[in-house]
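Why do we care about 3D structure at all? Because function follows from shape, and shape follows, mostly, from sequence. That is the central idea of this module. The next example makes it concrete: a single protein chain, its amino acid sequence, and then its structure expressed as C-alpha cells.
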Amino acid sequence: MRKRLVYKYLLIIAFVAIALYAIHSHGVKRGMDLSGGSRLIFKIDTSALPEEEKGRLGLTEETMRIIRKRIDPAGVLEPRIQRKGGHEIIVELPFYRQTYKIKAEDTLKDIARKFFADEEKWRKIYDANKELIEDPENLRPGTTIKIPGIKAEEMKRKAEQLGTLEFRLVVDEHSKDPEDKKAYDEAVAGRVPSGYKWMDLRSAQGTVEKLLIKFNDPFKITGGDLAKSYATTNRYGLPIVGFDIRPGARARFARLTELHLKERLGIILNDKLQSAPVINERIYERGVIEGRFTAREVQDYVDILNSGKLPAPLILISEDYEGPTLGQDSIRRGFRAAILGLILVLIFMAFYYLASGLVADFALILNLILVIGGLALFRATLTLPGIAGLVLTVGMSVDANVLIFERIREEKAAGKALGVVIKDGYARAFRTIFDANVTTLITALILFQFGTGPIRGFAVTLSLGIIFSMFGALFVTRAIFDGLLIKGWLKKFAMFQAFKQPSLPFLRYSRWAIMGSLCFMIIGLGTFLHRGEENLDIDFTGGALFQLQLKEPKRIGEVRNEVAQAGFPDAEVQSLTGELGGVTELKASEFAIRIRLPGGTEEEQETQISQIKAALESAFKDYAPLRKISVSFPEVRELKSPVGERQVEGYYITAELEEALPESAKSAPVWRPSASAMLGSSYITRRVPKKG
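And the structure:
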C-alpha cells in the first residue's frame, strides 16, 4: 500500500514537472482575439492556368484548404482564413511578435536586416518601437525591442511555396537508354533536346554540380503519389524527409528504380534539385529525400508535401499588423471574470467541505496547471473561447469532487469505518463521473475533428480539461486522502451540511417536467428556424469590412463604444498597426470594423452599406470620415455585376466574400450537435444495465 502510494505521488510530481517545464520553455500562445497578429492578403495567380480552370468554382476553396493544412497541420494554431473577392484570400496569423535585446554593435537597420531579408521592410521594426526609438537614450544595449512579423515570415514561406515534388532520372554518359545518351551528348554540345533540362545541385561544401534531368519519362512520379511524408534522420543523424508511397503508385516506383539500378534519381522540390542519389535497390513502399536541410526546413517540407500542391501560385499583395480583436478592455474583463469565478469556487469548496474542500482546491489548481501545461506542450493557441473552456473545466472538476464527497457522506452515515467510507465513496462516484466526462469528451472530439479556428481551440482546451479533471478528482485527491489515512492525520471526514435530510419528491412531478421540457424545446427550435440567418454571425454569413482612419488616435475600447452607440453592438472592432501584442494599452488611428449584413440583393446590400457608412460617419463626425470601405456579400450568386472594384457614392468599394469558416464548418449548426447527441446517447444506453 505504502509503496503503491509512493508511485502515485511520483506520477503526480512528474506530470506537474512536465507541465511547468512546458509553460516555462514554450509559454502559452495567445490567439488573434487576445494578442493580435499579422494580416496577409494573397492573390491566386491564374495567368498560367487553362481557361476552364480560371473560372472553376472550387479553386479558391481548394487553395484555402491547402493553406490551412500547411500553416496549421496540427489544428491548434487557429489562423483565420477568409475568401476575399474572386481569387483573393485573407490569412490572419496570431502571436507574430517576438522580442530582441539590442547588442552593443547593433543599429536599428542592422536589426531589421537580420530579421527581414527584404531591406524595404525595416520600417516595420521602427513603427513597432516608435515611442521607444523617438528618445535616443532608450535605444541602448540591453534594451528589449519588439520584432514584428517573425512568425508571419515562416508562415508566408509555407503558404507561397507551390509544393511540387518530382522524381526524375539523371542522364549522363553512363545511361542505359541509347536515346538518353544521345540527348546527353547534344546537351553537352549546347543543344538541349526537348524534355531535358540542366539543373544545379549544390553540395554541403557549397560546390555546384550541373546535372541533365529527364522530364519526359513515362513513369511521372510526383508528390501526388505519396501517401504521407514525415521528418526523420539519416545514418549520420542529419534531418531528412521520409515518405511513404501510395499503393497505386508503388508498381510504377518499383519499375522505375528496378530498370535504372546504379543510375541517379533526381529529387526536385519546389523546382529546385535537392539531391540526386544513386539507385542502389528497388524502391517499393518508402524512401527518403536528402539535402542540405535544417530540422525546421524538413518540418516545413513535410507540412507542404502533406498538404498537397497548390493549384496555382500565390502572390502576396498586402501585409498589415492587427491589434487584438477584443481590445485590452475586453481582455482584462475576460481574465478578471475567469479569476473571480475561480476564487469564488475555491472559497465555496473550502467553506462547505472544510479540510476536504481544501484538498479539492489543491487538485483544482493542479488541474489548471496541467491544462495550461498541455496547451504549451502541444503549442496550442489560447483564445477567449479557450478561456471559456478553462472556466468550464473548473466547474466540471468541482462537480466531480462534489459527487465524491456526497457519496462519502452517505457511506459515513451508514456507520462504516473511515477507510472503507473513502474507498466506497470513490467507487460509487466513479461510474457517474466517468460517464459524464466521456460523453462531454465525445462532443469535444467531434468539435476538434470537424471544427476550425476558435472552435478547435475550445475543443482542445475542453478535452485537456476533461482528462485532467478526472485525473485530479479520481486520482490526486484519492492519493492525498490515502496518505493522510496512513499517517493518521485524517481522523474524521467533517463537512458542512446545509440540508440534513432532504426529501424532495422529484419523481412525483416527472410528467410535468417532461412536458415542460418538450414545450421549451419546441419553442426554442421554432424560434431558431423562424430567425433563419439571423442566428448566424459574420463568420458564417459574410458581411461588410469597414476600414476607419481617425484624425486622432483612440483606444479600441472607445472606438467599440462609439460603434455600439451608432447601432452596431455586435460589430467586431480591431486596431490596425496599433496595440503591440497586448503589451501596453496604446492608441491607434486606424481600425477595421466588421459588420454583418442582413442579406438581400446587390442593390439592397449597397443601400445597407450606405446606411451603415452614414451612421459611422455621424458617430465619428469629430474625426476623419471613412477612408475606405470593403464590402462582402453573403451570396456571390446574387451579384449582378462581376466581383471586382467599383464606385458607390464616391467611396471605394471592393466586393468580397468575408467568410472565416469553410463550408464543412458552416453546416455545424445543423448536424454536429446532432452527431454529438447521438454518440453520447449511444454511449449512455450501452452503459445503463438492462433489467432482468
